[in-house]
Every structure is written in structure tokens, then in C-alpha cells.
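Async update (no meeting this week)

Hi team, since we skipped the sync, here's where things stand on the single-chain job. The sequence we agreed to prioritize is pasted below, unchanged from the tracker. I ran it this morning and attached the output directly underneath so nobody has to dig for it. Comments welcome in thread, and please keep replies under the output.
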Amino acid sequence: MAKKFFKRHEILARLRAQIAASAPILAAGSSCGLVAKCAAMGGADLLVVYSTGRSRLMGLPTSRIGDSNAATIAIAAEIRNVVADVPIIGGIEAWDPTRLDLDDLLEDFQTAGFSGIINYPTISTMGKTWRERRGRVGLGFEREVELVRRANAASIFSMAYVATPEDARAMAEAGADCIVPHVGATRGGLVGHDAAQTGKADLEMVKAIVAGARAVGSEAIYLAHGGAISEPEDTENVYRDTDCVGFVAASSIERIPIERAVLAAAKAFKAARMG
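Output:
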């Protein structure tokens, strides 16, 4: 199986072809080979590798554990071993203090075989206090914006998680190819985050974030993520009511379906009658 590295223009052409065909784009969180292989067979347009995906596969709530960049890079070979025809996107922690040279960091991810990058873990979702503290030492959200700007300058495909209209505007100005309104941790399943916010409120947040990017004339592709948007039927509401044309599924691909499938299989085996 020939392993393929996709150039930025190739990825964008594939995504725009899906949009032209009125087919939703699916970026599937894939932090192990089996999930990546199945997601690719199911039609995923992008496979997104997160270090935090390992926590989901450990049966834990989505969590940052250890050296995020090293963990993400280490997963690349496992994914590329079983998938060759879908672009693999790597989650970069731009504010890693042990990797201050962003150009070197981008090169490390490309060398590992990632065809694009996404700013994850992201400070955009972490609240005002954390942002201010990290920003004071030069390791705040501005590092994520600079990462995307450098990826754009190097013709590397980029995706940007953003939780506010202001962050969306900054990423649009940096040249992000896909902007992903992040409306909170995914609900549902055994360890999903409970929140009072409704699906309707999530849609309003998505629209506000997209408007932030559109205000500077961005031609980015918009993909929704998080909160109460966790099932296929939820995404239909997104496509009907917002300018998003796809979905970034993390827990919705690599946690919740596995929980359901294994629970059902175990129960079925235990329910089998003995002779």
C-alpha cells in the first residue's frame, strides 16, 4: 500500500469537490489505526490525529496527557500503516515551551507524514484566565495564530479551532484553510461532558464564530465541532441553519461509537443461551 502525502492544493480540491456535490465534509478523529482504517472506509475526508484521542481510547474523559506534540507525532506511523488514501492531519500544541521554533515544529509534523495541521490542544477554549497567563509569557493564543500563518506561508494545509468570533477573525487573517467553530466539549456517552447549553445555543455560537471570520472576507471552509453537536442528525441542523459544510468528529467517532459497540457485543455474548 503506497503511502501518500497530500499537498495543500490537493486537499482543498478534494474538499471543494465534496461541497460542489452537496456532500458534507467529515474530519474524523482517529488516534489509533483501527479507528482510522474504519473511518477511511466509511468515507471520512480527513483523519485528524490528537494526543487527547489516546485519553478517549483509555476510557477517560478527553484529557491532555504528557507531551502532546511527541504523542501526536508518535501516532502518525500507526495511522499511515493502514491508511494511504486519506489526508492525515496532526494536532499541534503551538504553545509547547519545549518547542519554541514553530518552523521546526511544522517540519517535524511533515516529516512524520502529516499532510496538514490543526491547532490542538487550543487555548481558544480554555477561558480568559489561562489565556492571559500564557499570553504574558509569550505562549498564548497568538502562538496558534502564528503557527497557522507559517503553515499558510509554507503551503501546508491548516485547520483552526476557534471558540470566539475574535479568534475566528484572527485565524481568518492568518489564512486558515478550514475554520472550526468549537462550541465546547462533546456531550454524550460514558464520559461525555454535561452542560446546560442547548443545541440551539450551540448553533447560535457557530453562526457568531463564522461571522467573525467572514468579517475579514475569509474564504475558509467552515466545519462545526462540539457541544450538543454529536450525532449525524445534529449535523443536519448545522448544515440547515449555519454556513458550515462539514463536521469535525472527535469523541463522536473514536469514543461514543466504540462504547456503544463494545457494550452491545458484550451484552449479546452474555445473553447467548447455553445448551
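Quick observations from my side:
The CA atoms of residues 136 and 212 lie 25 Å apart.
The chain has a mean pLDDT of 94.
Reply here if anything looks off.
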